């Protein structure tokens, strides 16, 4: 950086008042200049006092014969005393400019003090008439020499210098004129004029220089103040190094950051200092190497973030600097600014971690996990290897989260994360996708059997009992696995394949591992297409209800109908309920479809005799709807159907998905008289326990036991007998489902089941057929004709 003149514009000529230092009184700039004038004159006060004493002594010795020793001794003593007093007065704080600023009165006061010894010098100058020519010439010489010496020594303060010159010149000319020595008077006047000119020229140059100095000082003070304010406001600091990279200047703030005094740091190598040591290890960070390279190459840099070791603690500084180049183009170092951004860097790192890691478990989140999957796929492509993606979904977690609260649920998720980490290798990247879903990226998956075995071990480990805050909890897990790049060459496709495999695992009953197969994609596409068309099926009148009779096992009379949902697709024909009902549940359509079933079935049942009941299956998702009771009441009221004729069938899935509304809805239905039946009894994990949840009116025995009883399975026979006995003791009815043969019908009848339902008596029929069947003339037996319709 080339040094330049602070004020490059030409200065206007000084006026006489400015030259004399008696203008701009109170102006801070001129007050500084006047102080500099007084301080400059102080430098020669001792010499001037000594010269005045010497000249006075010489003059007294020369003129002792003319005026007498006593008179000249007195005069000489007065001159010496006045010179000393003048010397001391001009060195005082008020008159010497020691305060850095001087007003006009200080100049006048100093001039008046200086005039006192000059008035004493006027005495021999005036009284020249009594002297011989030789003494007169010597007197003029000594006075003129004293006058010239004062001019040289006091030119920095022209008003003082010119005042002294005027007094002595006036005295000499007066003395010479009284002696009638016109020529010498003229010579003295000319000499005085020359001296005055010299005084003015030197004073002009001196004052101009002092003005520049004062302006520079003022500007430096302003810049220093601004820099100090900037440093305090911004938290930044200034630093400067020489061409060897050693500190030549640094502010107190930077020294404070390093825990040292500025003087202790000057001369230290800048890069090594902030690296925290001289060893090679300290210079390993790339940012420090970049800083060293920038300094070595003499290149400017901006916002370079470097690590700094302070008391063995890492911090982060942000540095910017420009090289210093003198007028000859020689590199002299760097001058720059720095700031400590450690807190901002830590906050940024925290934000970045929050953006890439799960806040609850500390595992990588979906974004970071997908980055790992992309890397694994790239590696697999390049090395012709195999990687794998495992999706893990927890079973029965939602019920724990809903019943025990999110705090327990969160702790359970953390424990699950720990178990997954303990069961996997360091080379696997584990992540939480959200909720109760986890994933594992397996970089080395050439042995697909080993990956599947890992999934099976994980299911076993995750299914072990958990103890959290005094609660013993049991969950399970389902896992879907896809292998890349065969099951997906991109991360998106591999994720889709793993998700389809997980769906298949959950559809298979949960708690199992399934790997992706190509037909899963076709099935998924079919499901997607069915979901799209199912959304418009209700509006297009494609959904209908069929009714299957429920028969008294001993009299074979109809006691009710179960309403069954049917979908007649315009292109596919009849779509099985077990195919489209799960789709409706997953797509969130089951609520609207379920309401339509309730309203339509109630509107049809009102046409039946009062002793015929209507049974409707309710999905667990319908029970989660707080408006279910309102919908049922509205349908019953609108159609004038007694609540006791309505029977809702639920499965244990209602309790697996239990929430705040489930039990309340059950109790509300009981209160209005609606009958509740527990469907598929005996196939769940704890069907007996569910009997305590509500006052069930009926238990429906699953068809698997019915088939087993007809085949003389001791286990099935024992279970049916136990169910019948338990139901009888609790005042419940029993219905055997799926009786398709005469043997099955007779076996459940003989075992005591009160009702039978199945193809042996009738397939599901249309509403018109059901209405015709129960509308036979009174007196004729209301018996279902086998295989009706």
Write the layout of secondary structure elements.
Layout: H1 16-20, H2 28-42, H3 45-62, H4 64-67, H5 69-90, H6 93-96, H7 104-126, H8 133-153, H9 158-178, H10 182-234, E1 236-241, E2 247-250, H11 252-257, H12 262-265, H13 270-275, H14 286-296, E3 301-310, E4 313-325, E5 331-340, H15 342-356, H16 366-383, E6 387-395, H17 397-404, H18 406-423, E7 428-434, E8 437-442, H19 448-463, E9 466-468, E10 471-473, E11 476-484, H20 491-507, E12 513-515, H21 518-537, E13 543-552, E14 558-569, E15 573-575, H22 577-586, H23 590-605, E16 613-617, H24 620-623, H25 628-639, E17 646-650, H26 653-656, H27 662-672, E18 675-681, H28 687-690, E19 698-701, H29 703-710, H30 714-730, E20 733-737, H31 742-750, E21 755-757, H32 767-773
Parallel strand pairs: 11-12, 14-16, 16-17, 17-18, 18-19, 19-20, 20-21
Antiparallel strand pairs: 1-2, 1-5, 3-4, 4-5, 6-8, 6-11, 7-8, 9-10, 13-14, 13-21, 14-15
Describe this structure as you would to a colleague:
This protein has 789 residues and is an alpha/beta fold. It has four domains: 16-218; 235-348, Beta-Lactamase, CATH 3.30.450.20; 357-516, Reverse transcriptase/Diguanylate cyclase domain (Alpha-Beta Plaits), CATH 3.30.70; 530-773, Alpha-Beta Barrel (TIM Barrel), CATH 3.20.20.450. It has 32 helices and 21 strands. The protein is rod-shaped and about 175 Å long. The chain starts with 15 loop residues before the first helix and ends in a 16-residue tail after the last helix. Mean pLDDT is 81; it is low at 1-10 and 785-789.
């Amino acid at each position: 950086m080339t040094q330049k003149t602070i004020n490059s514009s030409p200065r206007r000529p000084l006026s006489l008042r400015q030259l004399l230092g008696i203008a701009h009184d109170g102006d801070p700039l001129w007050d500084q200049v006047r102080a500099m004038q007084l301080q400059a004159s102080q430098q020669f006060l001792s010499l001037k006092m000594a010269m005045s004493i010497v000249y006075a002594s010489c003059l007294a010795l020369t003129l002792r014969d003319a005026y007498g020793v006593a008179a000249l001794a007195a005069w000489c003593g007065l001159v010496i005393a006045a010179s000393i007093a003048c010397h001391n007065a001009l060195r005082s704080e008020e008159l010497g400019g020691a305060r850095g600023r001087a007003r006009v009165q200080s100049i006048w006061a100093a001039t008046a003090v200086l005039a006192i010894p000059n008035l004493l010098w006027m005495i021999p100058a005036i009284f020249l008439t009594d002297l011989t020519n030789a003494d007169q010439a010597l007197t003029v010489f000594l006075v003129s020499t004293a006058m010239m010496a004062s001019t040289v020594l006091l030119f920095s303060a022209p008003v003082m210098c010119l005042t002294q010159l005027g007094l002595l010149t006036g005295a000499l000319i007066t003395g010479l004129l009284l002696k009638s020595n016109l020529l010498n008077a003229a010579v003295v006047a000319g000499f005085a004029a020359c001296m005055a000119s010299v005084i003015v020229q030197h004073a002009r140059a001196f004052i101009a220089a002092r003005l520049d100095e004062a302006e520079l000082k003022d500007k430096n003070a302003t810049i220093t103040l601004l820099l100090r304010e900037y440093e305090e406001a911004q938290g930044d600091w200034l630093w400067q190094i020489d061409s060897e990279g050693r500190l030549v200047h640094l502010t107190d703030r930077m020294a404070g950051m390093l825990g040292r005094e500025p003087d202790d740091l000057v001369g230290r190598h800048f890069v090594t200092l902030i690296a925290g040591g001289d060893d090679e290890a300290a210079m390993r960070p790339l940012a420090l190497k970049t800083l060293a390279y920038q300094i070595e190459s003499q290149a400017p840099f901006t916002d370079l973030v470097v690590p700094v070791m302070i008391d063995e603690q890492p911090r982060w500084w942000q540095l910017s600097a420009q090289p210093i180049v003198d007028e000859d183009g020689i590199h002299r170092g760097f001058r720059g600014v720095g700031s400590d951004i450690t807190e901002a860097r830590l906050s940024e790192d925290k934000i970045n971690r929050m953006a890439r890691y799960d806040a609850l478990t500390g595992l990588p989140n979906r974004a970071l996990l997908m980055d790992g999957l992309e890397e694994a796929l790239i590696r697999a492509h390049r090395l012709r290897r195999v990687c794998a993606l495992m999706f893990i979904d927890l079973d029965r977690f939602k019920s724990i989260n809903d019943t025990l609260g999110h705090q327990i649920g969160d702790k359970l998720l953390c424990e699950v994360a720990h178990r997954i980490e303990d069961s996997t290798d360091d080379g696997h990247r584990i992540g939480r996708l959200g909720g109760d879903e986890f994933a594992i990226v397996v970089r080395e998956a050439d042995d697909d059997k080993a990956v599947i075995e890992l999934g099976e071990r994980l299911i076993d480990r995750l299914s072990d009992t958990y103890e959290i805050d005094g609660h013993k909890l049991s969950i399970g897990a389902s896992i879907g696995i896809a292998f890349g790049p065969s099951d997906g060459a991109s991360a998106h496709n591999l994720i889709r394949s793993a998700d389809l495999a997980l769906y298949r695992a959950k559809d298979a009953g949960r708690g199992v591992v399934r790997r992706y197969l190509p037909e899963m994609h076709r099935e998924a596409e079919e499901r997607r297409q069915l979901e799209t068309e199912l959304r418009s099926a209700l509006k297009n009148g494609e959904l209908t209800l069929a009714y299957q009779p429920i028969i008294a096992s001993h009299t074979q009379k109809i006691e009710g109908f179960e309403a069954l949902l049917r979908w007649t697709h315009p292109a596919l024909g009849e779509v099985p309920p077990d195919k489209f009902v799960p789709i409706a549940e997953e797509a969130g359509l089951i609520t609207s479809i379920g309401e339509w079933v309730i309203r339509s079935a109630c509107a049809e049942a009102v046409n039946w005799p009062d002793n015929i009941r209507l049974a409707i299956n309710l999905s667990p998702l319908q029970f989660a709807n707080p408006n279910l009771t309102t919908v049922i009441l509205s349908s019953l009221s609108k159609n004038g159907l007694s609540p006791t004729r309505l029977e809702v069938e639920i499965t244990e899935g209602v309790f697996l998905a239990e929430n705040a509304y489930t039990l309340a809805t059950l109790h509300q239905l009981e209160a209005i008289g609606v009958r509740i039946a527990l469907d598929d009894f005996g196939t769940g994990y704890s069907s007996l326990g569910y009997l305590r949840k509500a006052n069930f009116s009926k238990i429906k025995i699953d068809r698997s036991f019915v088939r087993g009883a007809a085949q003389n399975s001791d286990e099935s026979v024992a279970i049916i007998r136990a169910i019948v006995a338990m139901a009888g003791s609790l005042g419940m009815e029993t219905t055997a489902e799926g009786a398709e043969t005469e043997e099955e019908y007779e076996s459940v009848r003989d075992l005591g089941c009160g009702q039978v339902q199945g193809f042996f008596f009738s397939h599901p029929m249309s509403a018109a057929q059901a209405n015709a069947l129960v509308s036979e003339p009174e007196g004729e037996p209301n018996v279902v004709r086998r295989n009706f319709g």
